[in-house]
Amino acid sequence: MSNPNIINLTEYYPGLAYVSPTGNNTGVVLLSNSSTSNSAIKVNSIIATNKSVDNVEIIVSINTSAAGTGTNYNLAYKIVVPFGASLQIVEKGSGIYLTEDKSIVVSTAIGNSMDFIASFETFK
Fold this sequence. Notes:
Order of helices and strands: EEEEEEEEE
Oligomer: single chain
Helix content: under 10%
Low-confidence stretches: none
Radius of gyration: 15 Å
Number of strands: 9
């Protein structure tokens, strides 16, 4: 497991990920970087959009292992997104790197109420 030197890139891929958690308070993987990917993922933005008619509490966390496993560290914890509104969790100016064997997991208090969209770049 080694992260790439992003100064001497050999490959670069833009990407978009999206999920809509269906269960109440159940974590769903938005992005995952496997331990054997030989890549780093720069997360430029994460946007949560409330598509319900209720205010909805969300959690967005970085997990210490790929596929949503390991210990989670919260980027956004129990933030209430008003009905019909969007919340930008990560923006390009404060982007984060998802190194090997890490993942980003999202959950909502009310299933089928939120869309999460991430814009990212993969470096190899």
